[in-house]
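$ ./design --mode recover --in tokens.txt
reading tokens...
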């Protein structure tokens, strides 16, 4: 036990997460095969790339006899990508599930993400080691990383390392990109009959790894509750001081699920949704006008304050910027070395301008130098623009300021516009998991042990029916290839797990759009307060508004 922990940390270490009833007698479940699953799109190409792991059936589990296995099972686990509250509980659930199969089963944690598997950096996870991490936030138990596992050399090294430890299954806890890696690995090992199963678990605060069988990725619940608490606090400050407009950028990468959930929870004056911007082909000036209009109308009511929520990936969805970013991606993939060798930002901008199409060059030229450089920063190992490093909130403040100055001259705006900017992302990724995430993550991990027990590979742990009490949750598995399509990455078409973006005909967005005209002008703030761990179920166990609306609740 660590020496310095708070009373709440101590209480959380003792929390017993709830499991679906199918898993309560152990991971030796009864498995029923369902319909065979095709990929979301690009069936032919996905099948060619994954001949051994395509067209596999859905799995659904019911409670087994509680019998243990004759032989122990050794398993390796990796945390991959950005932190999300509850990762430690996936490992705790997996550990307990494996022990329920055989008391001598062993769990090895590969350190620092996928690179730990290739470089053979590991720790054996024992009951004592795990005791300090149950129900805690963070990924510090074994660390995480964004190394992309994609080459046969990496897979072969990983196989040697697994064999040396007697590992017959790997569990990869990650988002869409990491589970794409898991799928590549599963296919490779199955093709060569390596005797190592691969199972994925759906992690990401972004909430964009979801479908009928993965109702939400873990961490979304806790992270949005943390951000909503902070936004509520800022709303109350704004409504007390009545002197600032707060522009708050929220993490979420491409998808706006986090902004949407926080907007619904806090009823901020403005909640931008990137997917809507794309669908309506809104340009930057239209977005700026929407915000400036709210500022002006509130000012006319004597309210020179407000709160605007901005999804992290907004810029990628503004049509002109989307084209610009696609051109930059291809250009930087091809000319990375020449670009990196240039001595100054001015030279870099000049180099880029010379290679862009006329239209994109005009958009690029119109941006302040900081934003230009932020747009051309290194892509992550999966080829994504690092949107968390683009200061969209500051860009919008500047542009709204300019527009209001024009309106002032034209007599259309008579108020004040003083601003504060914020970026909420890292504040929520390692928070102590909510009861929902503690239970869901523990169940996902325990369920992964059940998948391993079935001998299946290339599956993702699926626990659904999540708005019901935990005992009614449905445990099972979905083939990873069923979630795939082809996308352009690093200048090439690649098979990847499809990102689930905000659906504009979905209930959460419809709810926001029915309310936002009122929220843009009136002060309708809700102050959600902090996550509660104890108390009545409707306070302590309730999950997101997004999930409730999606399930018609
Ligand atoms: P994952 O997709 O790996 O879960 O990461 C989510 C995320 O928090 C995004 O919201 C954000 O854009 C990104 O990670 C930031 O990455 P980094 O931690 O590398 O700065």
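writing sequence...
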């Amino acid at each position: 036990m660590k020496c310095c922990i708070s009373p709440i940390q101590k209480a959380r270490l003792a929390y017993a997460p709830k499991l679906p009833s199918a898993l309560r007698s152990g991971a030796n479940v009864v498995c029923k095969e369902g319909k065979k699953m095709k990929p979301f799109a690009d069936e032919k190409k996905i099948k060619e790339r994954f001949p051994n792991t395509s067209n596999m059936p859905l799995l659904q589990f019911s409670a087994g006899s509680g019998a243990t296995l004759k032989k122990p099972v050794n398993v390796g686990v990796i945390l991959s990508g950005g932190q999300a509250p509850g990762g430690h509980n996936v490992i705790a659930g997996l550990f307990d599930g494996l022990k329920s199969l055989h008391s001598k089963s062993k769990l090895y944690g590969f350190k620092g993400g996928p690179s730990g598997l290739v470089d053979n950096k590991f720790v054996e996870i024992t009951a004592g080691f795990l005791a300090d991490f149950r129900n805690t936030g963070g990924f510090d138990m074994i660390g995480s990383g964004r190394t992309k596992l994609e080459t046969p050399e990496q897979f072969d090294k990983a196989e040697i390392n697994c064999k040396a430890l007697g590992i017959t299954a790997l569990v990869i806890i990650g988002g869409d990109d990491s589970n794409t890696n898991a799928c590549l690995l599963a296919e490779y090992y199955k093709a060569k009959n390596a005797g190592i199963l691969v199972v994925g678990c759906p992690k990401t605060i972004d909430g964009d790894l979801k479908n009928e069988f993965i109702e939400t990725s873990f961490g979304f619940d806790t992270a949005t509750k943390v951000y909503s608490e902070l936004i509520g606090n800022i709303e109350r400050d704004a409504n007390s001081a009545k002197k600032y407009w707060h522009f708050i950028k929220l993490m979420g990468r491409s998808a706006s699920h986090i902004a949407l959930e926080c907007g619904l929870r806090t009823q901020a004056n403005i909640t931008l949704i990137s997917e809507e911007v794309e669908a309506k082909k809104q340009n930057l000036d239209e977005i700026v006008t929407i915000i400036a209009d709210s500022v002006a109308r509130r000012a006319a009511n004597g309210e020179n304050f407000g709160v605007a929520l901005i999804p992290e990936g907004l810029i990628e969805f503004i049509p002109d910027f989307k084209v610009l970013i696609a051109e930059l991606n291809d250009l930087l993939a091809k000319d990375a070395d020449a670009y990196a060798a240039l001595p100054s930002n001015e030279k870099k901008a000049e180099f880029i301008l010379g290679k862009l199409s006329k239209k994109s060059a005009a958009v690029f030229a119109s941006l302040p130098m900081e934003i230009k450089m932020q747009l051309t920063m290194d892509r992550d190992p999966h080829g994504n623009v690092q949107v968390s490093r683009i200061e969209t909130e500051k860009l919008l403040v500047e542009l709204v300021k300019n527009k209001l100055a024009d309106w002032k001259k034209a007599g259309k705006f008579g108020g004040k516009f003083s601003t504060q900017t914020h970026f909420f992302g890292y504040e929520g990724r390692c928070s102590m998991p909510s009861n929902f995430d503690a239970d869901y993550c523990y169940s996902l991990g325990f369920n992964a042990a059940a998948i391993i027990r079935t001998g299946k590979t290339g599956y993702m742990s699926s626990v659904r029916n999540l708005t019901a009490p935990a005992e009614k949750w449905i445990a099972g598995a979905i083939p990873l290839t069923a979630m795939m399509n082809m996308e352009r990455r690093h200048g090439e078409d690649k098979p990847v797990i499809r990102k689930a973006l905000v659906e504009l005909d979905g209930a959460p967005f419809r709810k926001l759009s029915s309310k936002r005209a009122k929220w843009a002008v009136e002060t309708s703030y809700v102050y959600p307060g902090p996550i509660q761990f104890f108390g009545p179920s409707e306070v302590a166990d309730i999950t997101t508004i997004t999930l409730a609306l999606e399930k018609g609740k």
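exit 0
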